[in-house]
Amino acid sequence: MATQFKIDGLKASIEGKEILKGINLDIKGGEIHAIMGPNGTGKSTLASALMGHPKYEVTDGQVQLDGEDVLDMAVDERARAGLFLAMQYPSEITGVTNSDFLRSAINARREEGKEISLIKFIRLMESKMKELDMNAEFAHRYLNEGFSGGEKKRNEILQMMMIEPKIVILDEIDSGLDIDALKIVANGVNSMRSEDRGFLIITHYQRLLDYITPDYVHVMMQGRIVKSGGPELAERLENEGYDWVKEELGIEDETVGQV
Ligand SMILES: Nc1ncnc2c1ncn2[C@@H]1O[C@H](COP(=O)(O)OP(=O)(O)OP(=O)(O)O)[C@@H](O)[C@H]1O
Ligand SMILES: [Mg+2]
Protein backbone atom coordinates (compact mmCIF):
# COMPACT_ATOMS: atom_id res chain seq x y z
CA MET A 1 0.00 0.00 0.00
CA ALA A 2 1.26 3.47 -0.83
CA THR A 3 2.48 5.61 2.06
CA GLN A 4 -0.20 7.66 3.82
CA PHE A 5 0.54 10.48 6.21
CA LYS A 6 -2.47 12.11 7.81
CA ILE A 7 -2.47 15.16 10.04
CA ASP A 8 -5.81 15.89 11.62
CA GLY A 9 -6.64 18.96 13.71
CA LEU A 10 -3.12 19.21 15.10
CA LYS A 11 -2.69 21.81 17.83
CA ALA A 12 0.56 22.51 19.64
CA SER A 13 1.79 24.96 22.27
CA ILE A 14 5.08 26.27 23.55
CA GLU A 15 5.24 27.23 27.19
CA GLY A 16 1.48 27.54 27.28
CA LYS A 17 1.25 29.64 24.11
CA GLU A 18 -0.70 27.98 21.33
CA ILE A 19 1.21 28.11 18.04
CA LEU A 20 -0.48 25.46 15.90
CA LYS A 21 -4.21 25.98 15.86
CA GLY A 22 -5.53 22.99 14.00
CA ILE A 23 -3.51 21.72 11.05
CA ASN A 24 -5.04 19.32 8.55
CA LEU A 25 -2.88 17.75 5.87
CA ASP A 26 -3.05 14.56 3.90
CA ILE A 27 0.15 13.48 2.19
CA LYS A 28 0.20 10.37 0.04
CA GLY A 29 3.19 8.53 -1.31
CA GLY A 30 4.39 10.13 -4.54
CA GLU A 31 3.10 13.58 -3.62
CA ILE A 32 5.05 16.76 -2.95
CA HIS A 33 3.36 19.34 -0.75
CA ALA A 34 4.90 22.78 -0.34
CA ILE A 35 4.13 25.01 2.61
CA MET A 36 4.70 28.72 2.22
CA GLY A 37 3.83 31.57 4.52
CA PRO A 38 5.18 34.72 6.12
CA ASN A 39 7.69 34.61 8.98
CA GLY A 40 6.44 33.51 12.37
CA THR A 41 3.30 31.74 11.19
CA GLY A 42 4.14 28.30 12.60
CA LYS A 43 5.81 26.44 9.73
CA SER A 44 8.90 25.27 11.63
CA THR A 45 6.75 24.57 14.68
CA LEU A 46 4.70 22.17 12.56
CA ALA A 47 7.88 20.38 11.43
CA SER A 48 9.20 20.13 15.00
CA ALA A 49 5.88 19.00 16.46
CA LEU A 50 5.63 16.26 13.84
CA MET A 51 9.08 14.99 14.76
CA GLY A 52 8.27 15.07 18.49
CA HIS A 53 10.53 17.90 19.64
CA PRO A 54 10.12 17.98 23.44
CA LYS A 55 9.61 21.76 23.56
CA TYR A 56 6.33 21.57 21.71
CA GLU A 57 3.34 20.20 23.54
CA VAL A 58 0.71 18.67 21.29
CA THR A 59 -2.63 19.53 22.84
CA ASP A 60 -5.06 18.16 20.28
CA GLY A 61 -5.31 16.27 17.00
CA GLN A 62 -3.97 13.15 15.40
CA VAL A 63 -1.05 12.22 13.19
CA GLN A 64 -0.94 8.87 11.45
CA LEU A 65 1.72 7.29 9.27
CA ASP A 66 0.43 4.23 7.46
CA GLY A 67 -2.24 3.81 10.10
CA GLU A 68 0.17 4.06 13.04
CA ASP A 69 -0.26 6.74 15.68
CA VAL A 70 2.79 9.00 15.35
CA LEU A 71 2.01 11.15 18.39
CA ASP A 72 2.30 8.07 20.57
CA MET A 73 5.89 7.46 19.41
CA ALA A 74 9.13 8.78 20.91
CA VAL A 75 11.40 10.79 18.58
CA ASP A 76 13.59 7.82 17.69
CA GLU A 77 10.53 5.68 17.01
CA ARG A 78 9.22 8.32 14.61
CA ALA A 79 12.50 8.21 12.72
CA ARG A 80 12.36 4.42 12.67
CA ALA A 81 8.81 4.55 11.37
CA GLY A 82 10.11 6.57 8.41
CA LEU A 83 9.74 10.25 9.31
CA PHE A 84 12.63 12.52 8.43
CA LEU A 85 13.15 16.23 9.07
CA ALA A 86 15.85 18.43 7.61
CA MET A 87 15.77 21.29 10.08
CA GLN A 88 15.88 24.99 9.24
CA TYR A 89 18.92 25.26 11.51
CA PRO A 90 20.68 21.86 11.70
CA SER A 91 22.49 21.24 14.99
CA GLU A 92 26.23 20.74 15.26
CA ILE A 93 27.24 17.58 17.10
CA THR A 94 30.84 17.43 18.20
CA GLY A 95 32.32 13.98 18.71
CA VAL A 96 30.05 12.20 16.22
CA THR A 97 31.34 11.98 12.67
CA ASN A 98 29.04 12.36 9.75
CA SER A 99 29.62 8.77 8.65
CA ASP A 100 29.07 7.34 12.16
CA PHE A 101 25.85 9.27 12.40
CA LEU A 102 24.63 8.13 9.00
CA ARG A 103 25.45 4.50 9.61
CA SER A 104 23.60 4.48 12.94
CA ALA A 105 20.65 6.24 11.37
CA ILE A 106 20.43 3.69 8.56
CA ASN A 107 20.80 0.75 10.92
CA ALA A 108 18.21 2.15 13.30
CA ARG A 109 15.65 1.66 10.53
CA ARG A 110 16.71 -1.94 9.95
CA GLU A 111 15.95 -5.04 11.94
CA GLU A 112 18.59 -6.54 14.17
CA GLY A 113 20.90 -8.79 12.22
CA LYS A 114 20.09 -6.94 8.97
CA GLU A 115 22.43 -3.99 9.48
CA ILE A 116 24.20 -2.54 6.44
CA SER A 117 27.73 -3.91 6.04
CA LEU A 118 30.58 -1.45 6.38
CA ILE A 119 31.69 -1.96 2.81
CA LYS A 120 28.20 -1.46 1.39
CA PHE A 121 27.72 1.59 3.57
CA ILE A 122 30.95 3.19 2.40
CA ARG A 123 30.13 2.51 -1.25
CA LEU A 124 26.65 3.97 -0.83
CA MET A 125 27.92 7.04 0.99
CA GLU A 126 30.63 7.65 -1.57
CA SER A 127 28.20 7.44 -4.47
CA LYS A 128 25.63 9.72 -2.84
CA MET A 129 28.28 12.25 -1.86
CA LYS A 130 29.44 12.27 -5.46
CA GLU A 131 25.90 12.90 -6.65
CA LEU A 132 25.72 15.85 -4.29
CA ASP A 133 29.14 17.08 -5.32
CA MET A 134 30.41 16.84 -1.73
CA ASN A 135 34.07 16.54 -0.87
CA ALA A 136 34.91 13.12 0.61
CA GLU A 137 36.38 14.73 3.74
CA PHE A 138 32.85 15.54 4.92
CA ALA A 139 32.34 11.88 5.80
CA HIS A 140 34.90 12.14 8.58
CA ARG A 141 34.10 15.56 9.95
CA TYR A 142 32.00 16.00 13.06
CA LEU A 143 28.33 16.34 12.20
CA ASN A 144 27.72 19.87 10.91
CA GLU A 145 30.59 21.28 12.98
CA GLY A 146 31.97 24.26 11.15
CA PHE A 147 29.97 23.40 8.03
CA SER A 148 28.95 26.46 6.05
CA GLY A 149 25.23 27.16 5.74
CA GLY A 150 25.07 25.59 2.30
CA GLU A 151 27.21 22.60 3.33
CA LYS A 152 24.78 21.85 6.17
CA LYS A 153 21.83 21.86 3.79
CA ARG A 154 23.60 19.59 1.34
CA ASN A 155 24.45 17.27 4.20
CA GLU A 156 20.78 17.10 5.23
CA ILE A 157 19.99 15.92 1.70
CA LEU A 158 22.76 13.33 1.94
CA GLN A 159 21.09 12.02 5.10
CA MET A 160 17.72 11.89 3.37
CA MET A 161 19.15 10.01 0.39
CA MET A 162 20.84 7.43 2.59
CA ILE A 163 18.12 6.95 5.20
CA GLU A 164 15.38 6.60 2.55
CA PRO A 165 12.51 7.83 4.73
CA LYS A 166 8.83 7.46 3.92
CA ILE A 167 7.94 11.05 4.75
CA VAL A 168 10.49 13.76 4.12
CA ILE A 169 10.03 17.18 5.73
CA LEU A 170 12.41 19.85 4.46
CA ASP A 171 12.40 23.16 6.35
CA GLU A 172 13.91 25.91 4.21
CA ILE A 173 16.33 23.52 2.54
CA ASP A 174 17.01 26.27 -0.02
CA SER A 175 18.15 28.92 2.44
CA GLY A 176 21.79 29.77 2.06
CA LEU A 177 22.30 27.69 -1.08
CA ASP A 178 24.09 29.16 -4.05
CA ILE A 179 22.47 28.64 -7.46
CA ASP A 180 24.47 25.54 -8.37
CA ALA A 181 23.89 23.99 -4.94
CA LEU A 182 20.16 24.70 -5.25
CA LYS A 183 20.06 22.65 -8.44
CA ILE A 184 22.11 19.84 -6.87
CA VAL A 185 19.84 19.69 -3.83
CA ALA A 186 16.73 19.78 -6.03
CA ASN A 187 18.12 16.93 -8.15
CA GLY A 188 18.72 14.99 -4.95
CA VAL A 189 15.10 15.48 -3.92
CA ASN A 190 13.76 14.63 -7.37
CA SER A 191 15.85 11.46 -7.49
CA MET A 192 14.08 10.36 -4.30
CA ARG A 193 10.54 10.90 -5.59
CA SER A 194 8.68 7.62 -5.51
CA GLU A 195 5.25 6.15 -4.96
CA ASP A 196 6.09 5.16 -1.42
CA ARG A 197 7.57 8.47 -0.33
CA GLY A 198 5.83 11.76 0.40
CA PHE A 199 7.38 15.22 0.80
CA LEU A 200 6.50 18.29 2.83
CA ILE A 201 8.66 21.17 1.69
CA ILE A 202 8.67 24.44 3.62
CA THR A 203 10.01 27.33 1.59
CA HIS A 204 9.72 31.08 1.14
CA TYR A 205 10.57 31.12 -2.54
CA GLN A 206 9.16 29.98 -5.84
CA ARG A 207 12.80 29.53 -6.94
CA LEU A 208 13.05 26.12 -5.25
CA LEU A 209 9.70 25.11 -6.73
CA ASP A 210 11.04 25.88 -10.21
CA TYR A 211 13.22 22.81 -9.73
CA ILE A 212 10.99 20.69 -7.50
CA THR A 213 7.45 20.82 -8.86
CA PRO A 214 4.95 20.49 -6.05
CA ASP A 215 1.57 18.81 -6.44
CA TYR A 216 0.04 21.05 -3.79
CA VAL A 217 0.95 24.42 -2.32
CA HIS A 218 -0.39 25.46 1.09
CA VAL A 219 -0.25 28.85 2.76
CA MET A 220 0.18 29.02 6.49
CA MET A 221 -0.95 31.98 8.61
CA GLN A 222 -1.81 32.27 12.28
CA GLY A 223 -0.85 28.63 12.90
CA ARG A 224 -3.30 27.29 10.32
CA ILE A 225 -3.31 26.33 6.66
CA VAL A 226 -5.48 29.09 5.28
CA LYS A 227 -5.25 28.40 1.58
CA SER A 228 -4.28 25.52 -0.69
CA GLY A 229 -3.77 25.24 -4.41
CA GLY A 230 -1.45 23.98 -7.10
CA PRO A 231 1.94 25.29 -8.27
CA GLU A 232 0.24 28.41 -9.67
CA LEU A 233 -0.46 29.55 -6.09
CA ALA A 234 3.29 29.71 -5.35
CA GLU A 235 3.81 31.73 -8.52
CA ARG A 236 1.14 34.24 -7.55
CA LEU A 237 2.66 34.59 -4.06
CA GLU A 238 6.08 35.20 -5.55
CA ASN A 239 4.68 37.93 -7.80
CA GLU A 240 2.18 39.55 -5.48
CA GLY A 241 3.22 38.70 -1.92
CA TYR A 242 0.71 37.78 0.78
CA ASP A 243 -1.47 40.88 1.01
CA TRP A 244 -4.13 39.56 -1.36
CA VAL A 245 -4.47 36.36 0.68
CA LYS A 246 -4.87 38.40 3.86
CA GLU A 247 -7.44 40.63 2.21
CA GLU A 248 -9.36 37.71 0.79
CA LEU A 249 -9.53 36.03 4.17
CA GLY A 250 -9.87 39.14 6.31
CA ILE A 251 -6.62 38.49 8.17
CA GLU A 252 -4.87 41.52 9.66
CA ASP A 253 -1.96 40.01 11.57
CA GLU A 254 -0.76 36.81 9.91
CA THR A 255 1.66 35.81 12.67
CA VAL A 256 0.73 33.44 15.44
CA GLY A 257 0.44 36.50 17.65
CA GLN A 258 0.24 36.97 21.38
CA VAL A 259 -2.22 35.19 23.59
N1 LIG B 1 10.88 27.47 21.38
C1 LIG B 1 10.11 28.56 21.27
N2 LIG B 1 9.95 29.42 22.30
C2 LIG B 1 9.17 30.52 22.20
N3 LIG B 1 8.50 30.84 21.06
C3 LIG B 1 8.63 30.04 20.01
C4 LIG B 1 9.44 28.86 20.06
N4 LIG B 1 9.37 28.25 18.84
C5 LIG B 1 8.56 29.02 18.09
N5 LIG B 1 8.12 30.09 18.79
C6 LIG B 1 7.25 31.15 18.27
O1 LIG B 1 6.24 30.57 17.49
C7 LIG B 1 5.95 31.38 16.36
C8 LIG B 1 6.08 30.54 15.10
O2 LIG B 1 7.45 30.19 14.91
P1 LIG B 1 7.95 29.28 13.72
O3 LIG B 1 9.41 29.07 13.90
O4 LIG B 1 7.09 28.07 13.65
O5 LIG B 1 7.65 30.23 12.47
P2 LIG B 1 7.97 29.99 10.93
O6 LIG B 1 6.65 30.06 10.23
O7 LIG B 1 8.81 28.80 10.73
O8 LIG B 1 8.77 31.33 10.57
P3 LIG B 1 10.06 31.56 9.58
O9 LIG B 1 9.47 31.70 8.21
O10 LIG B 1 10.60 32.87 10.05
O11 LIG B 1 11.00 30.42 9.74
C9 LIG B 1 6.93 32.54 16.42
O12 LIG B 1 6.27 33.66 16.98
C10 LIG B 1 8.03 32.05 17.34
O13 LIG B 1 8.65 33.10 18.03
MG1 LIG C 1 10.73 28.50 10.15
From TrEMBL:
Keyword ATP-binding: yes
SUPFAM superfamilies listed in its UniProt record: P-loop containing nucleoside triphosphate hydrolases
Keyword annotations of the record: ATP-binding, Nucleotide-binding
Pfam families: ABC_tran (PF00005)
InterPro entries linked: AAA+_ATPase (IPR003593), ABC_transporter-like_ATP-bd (IPR003439), ABC_transporter-like_CS (IPR017871), FeS-cluster_ATPase_SufC (IPR010230), P-loop_NTPase (IPR027417)
GO molecular function, one term: ATP hydrolysis activity
Family that this chain belongs to: Belongs to the ABC transporter superfamily. Ycf16 family.
PANTHER family: ABC TRANSPORTER I FAMILY MEMBER 6, CHLOROPLASTIC (PTHR43204:SF1)
Stated name of the protein: Vegetative protein 296
Protein source organism: Paenibacillus baekrokdamisoli
Gene assigned in the entry: sufC
